[in-house]
Structure formats: C-alpha cells, structure tokens
C-alpha cells in the first residue's frame, strides 16, 4: 500500500510526464510547420515515449492498490525561434524531469518504500539517456549554425528514428 505523500507525488509525476508528452507534441506541430518533417518524426517518437512514462507510473499506482488522480495539465509552449531553441527547451525540460525523479526517489527512500525505489531506478537510467539525446541534438544544431544544407542533412538523420526507438 502506498503512503499518502508518496501516492500524491507519483500522481504529480504522471501529470508531469503527460505535460512532457504535450511539449513534444507541440514540437511535432512546430517542426512540421517549419518544413522539417525529420525533426517532427523524432519529436513524435519522443511524444509516445513520454506517454509510456506516464502510463508506467499510472499502472504502478494501480498495482500498489493506490488511487490514481488525473490532474489538469498546463498548456505547452507552441512557438520557438529556431530548431536549436526547441531542442534547448527539450534539454532543459529533461533536466527538470531528472530532478523530479531524483526527488521522488528520495521521498520513496524516506518512506522506506522499496518497491517504488526499484520502479524509479528504471526512470533514473532513462533520464540519463533522455538528457544525453537532447543534449546531442543541441550540440549538432549548434555546429550546423545557419548552414541550411547542414540543417537539411540533420533533418534527414533525425527522421530515421522509428516509433518506439530510443533516440
Ligand atoms: Fe519522461 Fe523525457 O522524461
């Protein structure tokens, strides 16, 4: 049985993961609008990953005989000045999520809830990947600079990401 403070925090993280999903979904639309379908494909895969993250915690709460609370989700940003700015925002968001997961882990530790700690270990590993992949994109876009040919090549590379494939 989940303790109330931990149950509340896990429900909050379900909301946070769905917010991240919507951030990426808005980026899908933005990149499509910019004529960069490859980056949009990458963002679409990321959107589905975030939904999976939210559902993992959702199912965990249910498995622990907890109560799921679906909370209101803020609207995501819709506009970016450049592909670089979009990926910088994604990278910043992933760093925030990593901190949220770390805080959740600390709470589970304080509550002596071993099952929650084990479940969160998957997320801790996942966040290392999430930060690395968005940071790599930022670095590549910085290298491309204002070279539209380089941006075109990167768009093709990012478009090779398959649904369900890690970045
Ligand atoms: Fe679910 Fe990208 O953090």
Bound ions, cofactors and other small molecules, one mention each: MU-OXO-diiron
On the 0-100 scale, what is the average pLDDT?
A: 97
Please count the beta strands (DSSP E, at least 2 residues each). Answer: 0
Low-confidence stretches: none
CATH superfamily: Ferritin, core subunit, four-helix bundle
Q: Count of helical segments?
A: 5
Number of domain units: 1
Bulk shape: elongated
> Distance between termini?
35 Å
Report the helical percentage. Answer: over 70%
Would you give the CATH topology? Answer: Ferritin
Structural class: mainly alpha
Order of helices and strands: HHHHH
* Main sheet specs: none
The Rg value, from CA coordinates, equals: 17 Å
Structure description:
The protein has 5 helices and no strands. It has 167 residues and is an all-alpha fold. The protein has one domain (4-70, 80-158): Ferritin. The longest helix is centred in the C-terminal third of the chain and has 31 residues, at 114-144. The model has no long low-confidence stretch (mean pLDDT 97). The structure holds MU-OXO-diiron. MU-OXO-diiron (FEO) binds at residues 17, 20, 50, 53, 94, 97, 130. The site of MU-OXO-diiron (FEO) has 7 residues, from α1, α2 and α3.
Summarize the model shown:
The protein is an all-alpha fold and 167 residues long. It has 5 helices and no strands. Helix 2 runs parallel beside helix 5.
What are the main properties of this structure?
single chain, 167 residues, mainly alpha, Ferritin, 5 helices, 76% helix, elongated, binds MU-OXO-diiron
Topology:
Elements: H1 4-33, H2 37-63, H3 83-110, H4 114-144, H5 148-158
The protein binds MU-OXO-diiron.
